[in-house]
Amino acid sequence: MEPINFLYVILVGFGAAFVQRVSGFGLGIFAMMFLPHFLPSNTAAATISCLFSCCTTTFNSVKYRKNVAYKTAVPMLAAALVSIPIAVYFAAKVEAKIFEILLGSVLIVLSLYFLFFNKKIKIKPTPMSGIIAGTLGGALNGLFSTGGPPAVLYLTSATPDNITYFATIQFYFCLTNIYATANRAINGLVTADLLIYAAVGFIGCLAGDFLGRKVFDKLDAQKLKYVIYIGMIISGILMLF
Where are the alpha helices (DSSP H) in 95-191? Predict the structure, then answer.
């Protein structure tokens, strides 16, 4: 373990938790823009990103537990419980270069979606929509720890207000990331070194979440998102080429 990597992990944890607190999601996407570039493997990066999310979303889901729309979350959770272990198993077996190409492609596709189609695509808040969102989100979580977009697309339509949306998506992320981490451990992807990195990175996560709360009402979240999406495109291109 390189000492400088601990600083990198703290900084990534800070930025990821800050983005998550300001926009309601994006921790995994932000983390996966940077972690693969200095960690031993892409699966190691996804594992640490998932552990970061466990930390922040558990805190937020407990704090906002009274606002969670539990019935709305059930179809998503049920579907994710099926797709996550399949995706994690695949991630553990796929070659590193193929994984990098897939991750780069996913980052580019997600960024283009959020830049140009996010507000144009609407889905009906039905249980079947929740199942589809949970299946896709679980697959992305198990592969790359970037399972947020399908959940966002579904819950923005299925919840009545911002606080219910935020509480419900944090609850969903909390359970799915704990479950995904357990599946990664079963497949041998959670090592002692990664747990040390994650424990150090939690310092950054806590600081980022704290600052995000302080500036939540003052920061232009939409401009922040655009910066992140452009960064995702650049990061994705670097991984592909």
Answer: 96-112, 127-144, 148-158, 162-186
